[in-house]
Amino acid sequence: MNRRSFVFVxxxxxxxxxxxxxxxxxxxxxxxxxxxxxxxxxxxxAAEELNVEVLWNGPAQETEYSRQxxxxxxxxxxxxxxxxxxxxxxxxxxxxxxxxxxxxxxxSVFDSGLDTEKYTSWVxxxxxxxxxxxxxxxxxxxxxxGRVGVVMHxxxxxxxxxxxxxxxxxxxxxxxxIQVVARQFGQSDRARARAATENILTxxxxxxxxxxxxxxxxxxxxxxxxxxxxxGKVKIVGFDAADSMVEDLRGGTIDALIVQDxxxxxxxxVHTLVQKLNGKTPPRRLDLQAxxxxxxxxxxxxxxxxxxxxxKRYLNK
Length: 317
Fold this sequence. Notes:
Layout: H1 3-19, E1 23-27, H2 34-50, E2 53-56, H3 65-77, E3 82-85, H4 94-102, E4 107-110, E5 121-125, H5 127-141, E6 146-152, H6 158-174, E7 178-185, H7 190-203, E8 209-212, H8 215-227, E9 235-239, H9 243-251, E10 256-259, H10 262-277, E11 285-288, E12 291-294, H11 301-307, H12 311-315
Parallel strand pairs: 1-2, 1-3, 3-4, 4-5, 5-11, 6-7, 6-8, 8-9, 9-10
Antiparallel strand pairs: 10-12
């Protein structure tokens, strides 16, 4: 190859590299819950609007730490242009994510954090404040008095741990007439959360209320309360908003839901990376606010949009 041909090929290769779509890996904690489908739709909406490609891949369940590590490592080996991750466990994923960041690939951590400062942006609901909102909502339902249980999510999950922390802090500081008498993990599984709730209800048959820090915990708790015909008697404040949870809110088994905006979380996780790849400085931390939704709110247009984002538009392609 003569020099002129070599220069032409090199320039063509460089132009091709510049013109190709940037590839962003988005790795959720799991793929089996409605929350994550809404996050995926938001990520795909950002990809469509910002002209990037999103590779969506995550473990089936939120307790599969080793599987999520494998996915992170495989995305790093592919040399994706950016990586967004919701860590299943705050410590287990640190080494893999730090390797990605140190290799020069920008990282957005979304929904659930890590014990590291090596990331570009952090995008999540203010989960401590969400837990406090859950405490105030349940306390209002109980008129400031009663005994309550907490159906927790899974050990090591930062987002849900922060909700549980916020709930307990607000109860202790603001509602002296309410006592937290039981705490059990649902292990990110509806059946286990139901069993955990059954255990709490057996141990405390006069329980007044339950706070559930995640979608599977809330669904499991609602199933247990319905099976004992305690709907309306044991007040339930849950977190997130799967279809069955909204129906239980409408039907009276669940009394309130603390609702995030998973579509926006997914969108901003991708958006912050695109900003970085385009030479801009994205926010180091982006805190999104949750809101409490009661039965009487379900017909509000803004609540309907929050609870039912247009997931099919972005995922059925």
